[in-house]
Amino acid sequence: MFAVIFIPRFHLQAALRWRPELDARAVAVVDGRSAKSAVLECNETARIQGVSAALPSAQALARCPALTLLPRQMAEEQAAQAVLLETAFMLSPEVEATSDGCCTIDLQRDAAGRWEAMCPALVKQLNDLRLSAKIGVAPNPDLAFIAARRAEPVLAVNSPQRFLSRLAIAEIDPPPHLLALLRDWGIQTLGQLTALPHGEFAGRLGPDADRLWQRAAGKTTRLLRLVRPSEEFAEAFDFDGEIESVEPLYFILRRFLDQLCLRLAASHRVAASLDLALPMENGGTHERRFAIPSPTGDPETLFRVLTTHLDELHLDHRIAGVRLRIEPARPGHQQFRLFNNPLRDPNKFSETVARIIAIVGPENVGVAEPGDTHRPDDFRLAPPAFQTEGNEAGKAAGAQAIGLPLRRYRPPVPADVRMSRGRPARVFSEKTQGEVLDALGPYRLSGEWWEAGQWNTEEWDVEIAGEGLFRISNRNNRWLMEGCYDTALR
Fold first, then answer.
1. DSSP for residue 37
2. Which of 116 and 120 is assigned the larger pLDDT?
3. What is the mean pLDDT of the chain?
4. Is the dihedral of CA 340, 345, 350, 356 positive or negative?
5. Per residue in 464-488, is it b (16+ CB within 10 Å) or e — as a string?
6. Does the CA dihedral 245-247-251-257 come out positive or negative?
7. Structural domains of the chain sorted by starting position, each given as residue range(s) with its CATH number in brackets
8. Sequence-separated (6 or more) residues with CB below 8 Å from residue 338
9. Rounded Cα–Cα distance for residues 445 and 474 (Å)
10. Separation between Cα atoms, residue 469 and residue 263, nearest integer Å
């Protein structure tokens, strides 16, 4: 068995998908923006008022002055086609992208007959995604396509001959010369055609007649041109004119996320990252990628990620459209250790950090971590990664740490050090003062001699009478008290 999912008036549905305010109006999709552009498809309201396909747009407006003309939206059609194929792969892994708004599915592997229960559910799912679809099921692909066009909304053909016998010959799109000849013979239905002797009919009229008879009898078969599933969840929209404020953009993005999250849930996926692209009137594009700290399928959370960025966005040109793509991932399940304390809501924390970055700049926000140097107190700001189980570098450093903990003074405290025989003898500072009972050192450090910011440090660990153990340093002939050690004296 084969199934065909068919979206009637596909170009029109793709254009109206994000324009619900036009549902009650007369609308037609044209193949260009000039007055000579021809109508491709129109809705029922426009058809009642005399508009039809192939009609020039100027003539269509003359028949229906209230007609809304929409140019063909290629980006929106590609997104709608992706939704269609994504739905088809829920029935079977063997899917053919037959044409725009139509795909054919091989159900041979569905031995359990799940399609009988799944087809109505798939139609409802496409309706939720603002695509009205029909599904036809039959023993061969061509017959399934005919059934899909006549389905309301699902039609399964169990008896091909009985189903085809009542159909008009035009239903199978015969060659024009054969259609005219059969009409001259008084043959109007497929049943009348198949009543003719097959051999004599094909011998007299040639190969085209042979293929036409086979299709009329429901005996044709062909191999499907299979496509691979693409786990790309994307939507696109082009505004009718450039916009100057972000409110229309928020409106479209929220609708995008509601639809995309429905698709993610149906595929048992969550959003790991967002890719936002804003085409502008000058032909350029503003692009931004958003990593989701804790992958989620919640549209409200994803919408806050986008609005946090857009609230502070200032572009030199007006926005002409919007593209949004979601990188999917499987829902993660991370088990922390007994004493780990993860963030309760990583996404809300990330949103707060993003708002702070918008105020103070990205160079001033992050987590301090040691720099790749031996220079004392050198650090850099790194993006926070609180969802990892632990800082491996910190664990390694903790495992290698030996001796007494040093509590550093930040910043170091200026000190006056009296030397005797090349060793500290007395120390005076605001933290402590006294005679040095014992000293260990010096530990000389230096680096970055190849740059203007070279540094030289000489460190000593000293025991001050009645006070405890301290670390002092001499940086370019300037003495500093770096910190104190945790001892019983302190």
1. P
2. 120
3. 85
4. negative
5. beebbbbbbbbbeeebbbbbbbeee
6. positive
7. 2-156 (3.40.1170.60), 160-216 (1.10.150), 233-329 (3.30.1490.100), 334-402 (no CATH), 407-485 (no CATH)
8. none
9. 10
10. 64
What is residue 201's predicted lDDT score, i.e. its pLDDT? 83
Distances (CA, A) of 423 to 129, 273, 435, 477: 80, 59, 12, 14
CA atoms within 13 A on the CB side of 264: 27
Look at the alpha carbons of 185, 190, 196, 202 in this order and tell me if their dihedral is positive or negative: positive
Helix (H, G, I), strand (E, B) or coil at 328: strand
Instruction: Give the H or E element holding residue 271.
Output: strand 270-279
Task: Give percent of the chain with pLDDT exceeding 90.
Answer: 35
Model pLDDT, residue 166: 79
User: Integer distance in angstroms from the first to the last C-alpha of the chain?
Assistant: 85
Residues 6+ apart with CB under 8 A from 430: 413
Asked whether residue 401 carries a pLDDT value surpassing 60, the answer given is: no
Q: Which of 8, 51, 55 is nearest to 27 (CA)?
A: 51
What b-and-e string marks burial along 303-323, b requiring 16 or more CB atoms within 10 Å of the CB? bbbbebbeeeeeeeeebbbbb
Give the pair of three-digit tokens for residue 258. Answer: 């509601």
CB 437 within 8 A of CB 465: yes
Looking at the predicted structure, is the pLDDT value of residue 13 above 90?
yes
Average pLDDT over residues 260-264: 90
Cα distance between residue 462 and residue 354, in whole Å: 45
Q: What is the pLDDT of residues 302-352, one digit of tens each?
A: 998 898 888 888 888 899 999 999 999 888 665 555 555 566 667 777 778
Q: Which residue has the tokens 């709608």?
A: 80
CA 179 vs CA 186, 187, 195, 196, 425: distances in Å = 11, 9, 16, 15, 114
Query: What is d(CA 424, CA 454) in angstroms, rounded to the nearest whole number?
Result: 25
